[in-house]
């Protein structure tokens, strides 16, 4: 087996602004023009991220958007650039699939921001599947807000709480004990079969626990995603006989295609432990693909600037520990799937460029690249057949 390994690490929602098509994407009715997750956090509170900044994080922000990012901007010593997305969707599957070499070839179906948000027959079919007299919610909502508002009614009626967002998604929240976790999973799987043909990207099970006034989501979220429409980097690696490791929700995002081993956890801290263990143990020729979701789920959607800043600084330490464990012949790429600017209106993702920071190829500016160039580069590094429409920047 060849003397090379690749680690592809997605910092979920860590955008760096500058997307040329941001005006076509919205948050609370406002265009995403000017959104810049990292720069706006750094402007609120200067960031200390010595390891990723040494690769070229600050330089990448300047390249992508020209925005100031206090605390960042060291002279780059790694491979660095900014990537622009072409898929028409600022969601997690669109970003990850394109990074893995498969831009989304279709328009996703989005539910309208009306009440009800779902077509009446769909609401009725969900209730029938659940064995309940109806559904609650049926609207655009933030997941933590809607369980606080409707959780008690859910416990009284037993009806599942169904909601959506600016993503192509149908989410079902239910109490883990009162409704039942397996029952929620079965319901989501059945609903996924109803809505995937409509090009709704995902059905997400959102279990929660607690009582009125203290409802809290549990780590047992599960995503039922449409399968990618063409072979991704993961499929190509696996077909070539390579070990593939999925850390975090990568398995769900790729509908479990091309995944050799799953490494899941209750938190990003758990995932960091998996990633560092893989730096020590992953096989020669292997691909490790990791997603760190808490930037997005705990801080971006919650518009929590201080929390997001602290998570970035924590993750920088993880990146440093990873790089200290890498070996000659390894490539590590740190990137992101979309933005989620916590200073922006609304609670949804923001259309942005993303950083591309690489360890293993010395100091090198790659400039402006496409998301799919990441897949082409990882494939070239691992000596795999070409993947997708991108070009290697190595
Ligand atoms: O508010 P919550 O439930 O966290 O929802 C967020 O998570 C979903 C998937 O990323 C999106 O729909 C987004 O709005
Ligand atoms: Mn995401
Ligand atoms: Mn999100």
From TrEMBL:
<dbReference type="GO" id="GO:0008973">
    <property type="term" value="F:phosphopentomutase activity"/>
</dbReference>
<feature type="binding site">
    <location>
        <position position="12"/>
    </location>
    <ligand>
        <name>Mn(2+) 1</name>
    </ligand>
</feature>
<feature type="binding site">
    <location>
        <position position="338"/>
    </location>
    <ligand>
        <name>Mn(2+) 1</name>
    </ligand>
</feature>
<keyword id="KW-0413">Isomerase</keyword>
<comment type="pathway">
    <text>Carbohydrate degradation; 2-deoxy-D-ribose 1-phosphate degradation; D-glyceraldehyde 3-phosphate and acetaldehyde from 2-deoxy-alpha-D-ribose 1-phosphate: step 1/2.</text>
</comment>
<dbReference type="GO" id="GO:0000287">
    <property type="term" value="F:magnesium ion binding"/>
</dbReference>
<feature type="binding site">
    <location>
        <position position="349"/>
    </location>
    <ligand>
        <name>Mn(2+) 2</name>
    </ligand>
</feature>
<feature type="binding site">
    <location>
        <position position="337"/>
    </location>
    <ligand>
        <name>Mn(2+) 1</name>
    </ligand>
</feature>
<feature type="binding site">
    <location>
        <position position="301"/>
    </location>
    <ligand>
        <name>Mn(2+) 2</name>
    </ligand>
</feature>
<comment type="similarity">
    <text>Belongs to the phosphopentomutase family.</text>
</comment>
<dbReference type="GO" id="GO:0009117">
    <property type="term" value="P:nucleotide metabolic process"/>
</dbReference>
<keyword id="KW-0464">Manganese</keyword>
<keyword id="KW-0963">Cytoplasm</keyword>
<dbReference type="GO" id="GO:0005829">
    <property type="term" value="C:cytosol"/>
</dbReference>
<dbReference type="InterPro" id="IPR024052">
    <property type="entry name" value="Phosphopentomutase_DeoB_cap_sf"/>
</dbReference>
<dbReference type="InterPro" id="IPR010045">
    <property type="entry name" value="DeoB"/>
</dbReference>
<dbReference type="GO" id="GO:0006018">
    <property type="term" value="P:2-deoxyribose 1-phosphate catabolic process"/>
</dbReference>
<protein>
    <recommendedName>
        <fullName>Phosphopentomutase</fullName>
        <ecNumber>5.4.2.7</ecNumber>
    </recommendedName>
</protein>
<keyword id="KW-0479">Metal-binding</keyword>
<feature type="domain" description="Metalloenzyme">
    <location>
        <begin position="5"/>
        <end position="385"/>
    </location>
</feature>
<dbReference type="Pfam" id="PF01676">
    <property type="entry name" value="Metalloenzyme"/>
</dbReference>
<dbReference type="GO" id="GO:0043094">
    <property type="term" value="P:metabolic compound salvage"/>
</dbReference>
<comment type="function">
    <text>Isomerase that catalyzes the conversion of deoxy-ribose 1-phosphate (dRib-1-P) and ribose 1-phosphate (Rib-1-P) to deoxy-ribose 5-phosphate (dRib-5-P) and ribose 5-phosphate (Rib-5-P), respectively.</text>
</comment>
<feature type="binding site">
    <location>
        <position position="296"/>
    </location>
    <ligand>
        <name>Mn(2+) 2</name>
    </ligand>
</feature>
<dbReference type="InterPro" id="IPR017850">
    <property type="entry name" value="Alkaline_phosphatase_core_sf"/>
</dbReference>
<dbReference type="GO" id="GO:0030145">
    <property type="term" value="F:manganese ion binding"/>
</dbReference>
<dbReference type="GO" id="GO:0006015">
    <property type="term" value="P:5-phosphoribose 1-diphosphate biosynthetic process"/>
</dbReference>
<dbReference type="InterPro" id="IPR006124">
    <property type="entry name" value="Metalloenzyme"/>
</dbReference>
């Amino acid at each position: 087996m060849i003397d090379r390994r690749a680690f592809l690490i997605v910092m979920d929602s860590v955008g760096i602004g500058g997307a040329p098509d941001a005006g076509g994407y919205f948050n609370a009715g406002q265009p995403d023009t000017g959104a810049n997750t990292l720069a706006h956090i750094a402007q609120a509170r200067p960031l200390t991220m010595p390891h990723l900044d040494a690769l070229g994080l600050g330089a990448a922000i300047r390249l992508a958007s020209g925005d100031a990012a206090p605390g960042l901007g060291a002279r780059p010593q790694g491979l660095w650039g900014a990537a622009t997305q072409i898929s028409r969707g600022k969601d997690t599957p669109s970003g990850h699939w394109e990074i893995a070499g498969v831009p989304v070839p279709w328009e996703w179906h989005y539910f309208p921001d009306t009440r009800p948000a779902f077509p009446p027959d769909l609401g009725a079919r969900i209730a029938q599947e659940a064995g309940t007299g109806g559904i609650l919610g049926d609207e655009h909502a933030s997941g933590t807000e809607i369980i606080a508002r409707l959780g008690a009614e859910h416990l009284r009626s037993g009806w599942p709480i169904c909601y959506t967002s600016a993503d192509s998604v149908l989410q079902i929240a239910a109490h883990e004990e009162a409704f039942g976790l397996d029952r929620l999973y079965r319901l989501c799987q059945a609903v996924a079969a109803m809505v995937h043909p409509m090009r709704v990207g995902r059905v997400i099970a959102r279990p929660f626990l607690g009582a009125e006034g203290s409802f809290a989501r549990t780590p047992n979220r599960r995503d039922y995603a449409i399968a990618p429409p063409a072979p991704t980097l993961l499929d190509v690696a696996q077909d070539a006989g390579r070990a593939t490791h999925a850390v975090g929700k990568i398995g769900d995002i790729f509908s479990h295609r091309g995944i050799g081993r799953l490494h899941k956890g209750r938190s990003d801290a758990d995932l960091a432990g998996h990633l560092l263990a893989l730096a020590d143990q992953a096989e020669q020729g292997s691909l490790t693909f990791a997603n760190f979701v808490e930037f997005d789920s705990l801080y971006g959607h919650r518009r929590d600037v201080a929390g997001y800043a602290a998570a970035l600084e924590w993750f920088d330490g993880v990146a440093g520990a990873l790089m200290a464990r890498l070996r000659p012949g390894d490539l590590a790429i740190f990137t992101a799937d979309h933005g989620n600017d916590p200073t922006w209106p609304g609670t949804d993702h923001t259309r942005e460029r993303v950083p591309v920071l690489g360890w293993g190829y010395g100091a090198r500016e790659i400039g402006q690249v496409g998301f799919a160039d990441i897949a082409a580069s990882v494939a070239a590094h691992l000596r795999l057949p070409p993947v997708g429409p991108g070009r290697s920047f190595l």
